[in-house]
Amino acid sequence: MKSLINIALAVALVAPVLSHAAQPLTHAQVRAELIQLENAGYNPADESDYPRNLKHAQAIVAQQNAANTAYGSDINGASQSGSITQAGEK
Length: 90
Description:
Layout: H1 2-21, H2 27-39, H3 50-68
């Protein structure tokens, strides 16, 4: 009985994740992805080296997306300037 409850709980926790992943892309999302791939060097009209060119462009886009969502400070850095005041001064 306890294993049945554990299975039901696991299904209840996993189902929303799986249903979200199964949602189809919109036309605008597909078009935006194709534009990203083309900007990374992929040419859909060139079928001479199709799978390798596409995978290469996908790797470039993945690196760009990872760089855009990375945690931490900006690549260029930041600085502040101002005057230092002694304790008690305003």
